[in-house]
Amino acid sequence: MPGARLSRRLEALRAEYEAAKASLGEVGFTCEGSLVERYTSCHNPNCRCADPAERHGPYWQLSWKEGGRTVSRIISAEEAELYREWVANRHRLEEVLTEMRRISRQAAEQIAADTGHPFQGPARPRRSRSSGV
Ligand SMILES: [Zn+2]
Question: Which residues surround ligand 1, an ion (CB under 5 A)?
Answer without folding.
Answer: 42, 47, 49
